[in-house]
Amino acid sequence: MAKTKQKKPQRPRAATPRGFRDYFGAEVTRRADMLRTITGIYHQYGFDPLESSAVETVEALGKFLPDVDRPNEGVFAWQDEDESWMALRYDLTAPLARVYAQHRNDLPTPYRRYAVGPVWRNEKPGPGRFRQFYQCDADTVGTPTVAADAEICAMLADVLEAVGIARGDYIVRVNNRKVLNGLLDNLFGSEAGEGLRDGVLRTVDKFDKVGEQGVRDLLGPGRKDASGAFIDGLGLSSHQADVIISFLLARGESNAATISNLREVVGTSGIGADGVSELEQIAEMAEAQGYGPDRIVIDPSVVRGLGYYTGPVYEAELTFEITDEKGRPRQFGSVAGGGRYDDLVKRFTGQEVPATGVSIGVDRLLAALEAKGRTSAEAQGPVVVTVMDRDRVADYQQMVGELRAAGVRAELYLGNPKDMGRQLKYADQRNAPVAVIQGGDELAAGKVQIKDLALGARLAADIQTNEEWKAQPAQMEIERADLVAQVRAMIQRANA
Fold first, then answer.
1. Degrees, nearest 5: CA angle 472-421-380
2. Residue 170 marked in a binding site
3. Is 308 known as a binding-site position?
4. Is 90 assigned a ligand-binding role in the annotation?
C-alpha cells in the first residue's frame, strides 16, 4: 500500500503587506521629535490634545474619500459579530466630528483640539505612497468666523518654519469651495447633480499632477494615463472646460488681483460672492499678522479632494526641487492641507456646526527634510558598557546604573561576552558615542577605559601606524570615580 506523502508545514513569509512598511530606531525618533515640535506650536496657539479610537463605524466615518472606485470605498472595513460594519479611520477629522457630536454638551465652544496618530487608506500604493501614514491635525469646532481659517493658515506657516522649512521654501495656498460652487452654478445651473459637481471637483484636484491639458482632457472626452489605460472624461463641452480652466488659472500677481479675477468668474452667484469675500478677509487678516503673500497666497487651483469641505480650503506646498529615484528633478509638492467642513458634525446632530482644521502629513514632511539634508541620517545610540569578565556583571551593571542616574543613555552588552571585538562592533552598530571597558588590571588599579567611538571613526582614516593608534586621543584610561564626568565630556565633544 502506497504511503501518503505528507506535505511539509508551510512557514509564513516574513514580509510586510503591500503598501505598508516598518520603521526603525532613528526614523521613529525623528518622527517623535517632529511631532513634539508640531504639537508644541499647536499648544502655543491654545489647542488641547485629543486621543480617539482608531476604529469607527463605517456609518460614522461617512463616504468622503476621493478614490470612491476602490473596494470598501478607500477604507479598511470588516463586519462585526453584530453585523455592523467597522473600519480603520482614514483621517483624524471624521472621528473628531463623531467625538464632538457625542460629547458636545461637555466641551467648550469653540472647541480647539489637536490629534496625532496613524491613519489607514485602502488605496493603490505607489512610490512614497503607503496605506498607513501619520497625521498631525489641529481643528476649531463651533465657530463660523473665517478668523479661525486665517489662524490655521498662520499656524501652518509657523509649524513649517519650526520643523526646519526655511521661509521661501514653502507657500500656504488658499481657495474657497464656495467660489467653485458659484462657478458651477453659473456653468450648469443650480439643478446640476452632486455626481457632476463631485466629478468636476475630483478632476480639477488633479491639476498639480496632470497639468492644464490633462485636466482639460478629463473634463472632456478623457485621456490615457502613464500606463496607457484610457480614463473616461466627464464629457463637458469645450466652452465648459475653458471656463473651469480659466478659473484654475485666475491667480494674479497679488492677492488683490486674484480676488478681482475671482469676482469676475463668479458673476452674479451669491454663494460665489460669499466665497470671494471670505478669501479677501483671510488675506487681510493674514497680512495684519505679518503673513504676506510670500507665505500665504490666494490660489484658485487649490481644491482638496475630500468631499466634506464647504468653504475655505488650504494646502501647504514645498516649492523646492528634489531628485526622484531616477535622478530627475521634480517639485516636492504638498505636505499639509485642510479646510472648512461645516456639515460634518451635522450628520450626527441635525444642526449645523461650523468647523475648520488642518492635517499635516508627518512622514511626507520628514521625507522633505531628509531630501534637503536637514535631518541627521543616524540618531546617536546609547553608551555601551562592555563585559570583560562574565563573573563581574554586577559591577558593569553598577556603571550602567550610575550613567543612567546622571541622565546618560546607557546599556550593558547582553550578548556573548567572549569576544571583545564583537562587543565593540555591536557598539558601532548601535552608533554608540562611547564604549566603557574594564578588565582585571583596571579594576585592581581603580581605573576604567573609555573609548570615544565617534572620534575614533574620524581619526581611523588618517592613522598609519600602531604607535599612532595607541597615541590617538579616542581612548583613555581614567579614574573609576570620574566615569560619569568623563563620559559626559566625550559625548559633548562628539556632539560639538
1. 70
2. no
3. yes
4. no
Structural domains in the chain plus CATH codes: 25-372 (3.30.930.10), 383-495 (3.40.50.800)
Give pLDDT tens digits for 178-235.
998 888 888 887 666 777 888 888 888 888 788 889 999 999 988 887 777 888 888 8
What pLDDT is stored for residue 132 in this prediction? 94
**363 a known binding residue?**
no
Residue 451 exposure: Cα atoms within 13 Å on the Cβ side? 23
Annotated binding-site residue? 185: no
Per-residue CA distances from 291 to 152, 286, 318 (Å): 12, 5, 17
Residues present in the chain in total: 496
Q: Is 309 annotated as a binding residue?
A: yes
SS3 assignment for 242-308: HHHHHHHCCCCCCHHHHHHHHHHHHCCCHHHHHHHHHHHHHHHHHHHCCCCCCCEEECCCCCCCCCC
Helix (H) or strand (E) holding 26: helix 25-44
DSSP for residue 126 = B
Q: Output 280 or 418, whichever has higher pLDDT.
A: 280
> What are residue 58's phi and psi, to 5 degrees?
-60, -35
Task: Say which amino acid occupies 288.
Answer: A
3-state secondary structure (DSSP) of residue 230:
strand
d(CA 493, CA 487): 10
Give every strand in the sheet of 55-57, ordered side by side: 55-57, 85-88, 77-79
Q: Under a CB-based contact definition with an 8 Å cutoff, are residues 279 and 259 in contact?
A: yes
Q: Is 357 helix (H, G, I), strand (E, B) or coil?
A: strand
Q: Which residues of 343-353 are buried (b: 16+ CB within 10 A; e: fewer)?
A: ebbbbbeeeeb
Does the annotation place 93 within a ligand binding site?
A: yes
* DSSP secondary structure, 403-462, as one string: HHHTT--EEE--S-TT-HHHHHHHHHHTT-SEEEE--HHHHHHTEEEEEEHHHHHHHHTT
396 annotated as ligand-binding: no
Residue 173 dihedral angles phi and psi, to the nearest 5°: -100, 135
Q: Which of 172, 151, 173, 170 is nearest to 161 (CA)?
A: 170
Find out whether 92 is annotated in a ligand binding site: yes
Q: What is the mean pLDDT of residues 113-132?
A: 88
pLDDT(147) > 70:
yes
